[in-house]
Amino acid sequence: MIELLCARTKRVSYDPAMKSPRLAKLASFGSVALLAFAAAGTAVAKAPTKGNYQGLTSEKIAVTFEVSAGGKNILNFTTALGYNGKCGQGGGPGFEIKVKAIRVSHGKFSATTKGTLHAAVVVKPIDVKISGHISGKKATGTVAQTGGKNKCTTIDKGANPYSETFTASTK
């Protein structure tokens, strides 16, 4: 392979097998174009914006939290996890979800905690997983009971009746 200097591009590779420096130049340009398109197709997440976030779950329950300076932590995450109707009509208790801090890495976050019920009846706390993505001023995610204790047995067999999505944002 021979390198040639060209007026338009600083260097052009000449491969004798291609028989023409022009073909080599086109091949080299095509490689650069493919790399540019590949890079453009990869979305770059914006760093989380510091601030107080508010939003709603898919069951219209409030979600609130703060994002720390530098966007590395979600602080004081609070919501409730209620019955989502996937097993049919009825209802269930709304479990309170509170997490003091959740680490954010590359725009993603995840934590496990206990959901507690404050009612006249004694109900054992449930295991809950919070996970999601945050970019710029918007966060989306899921809050769901883990452990498989509450699965639908009739209508939507196997569905988790304590699973909600959420969206929250800051100004």
C-alpha geometry: elongated
**Mean pLDDT across residues:** 77
Biggest β-sheet strands, sense, barrel = 8 strands, antiparallel, barrel
- Uncertain stretches of 5 or more adjacent residues: 1-10, 32-42
Q: For the terminal residues, how far apart are their CA atoms?
A: 57 Å
Percentage beta strand: 35-45%
Measured as a percent range, the helix fraction is: 10-25%
**Rg to the nearest angstrom?**
26 Å
The computed structural class is mainly beta
- The total count of helices amounts to 1
Topology:
Layout: E1 2-4, E2 12-14, H1 21-41, E3 51-57, E4 62-67, E5 73-81, E6 95-105, E7 108-115, E8 126-135, E9 138-145, E10 163-169
Antiparallel strand pairs: 1-2, 3-4, 3-10, 4-5, 5-6, 6-7, 7-8, 8-9, 9-10
What does this structure look like?
It is a single chain. The chain has 171 residues and is mostly beta strands. It is built from one helix and ten strands. The protein has one helix spanning 21-41, and strands at 2-4, 12-14, 51-57, 62-67, 73-81, 95-105, 108-115, 126-135, 138-145, 163-169. The strands form two sheets. The chain has an eight-stranded antiparallel barrel with strand order 3-4-5-6-7-8-9-10. A two-stranded antiparallel sheet has the order 1-2. Strand 4 (62-67) and strand 5 form a beta hairpin. The termini are far apart.
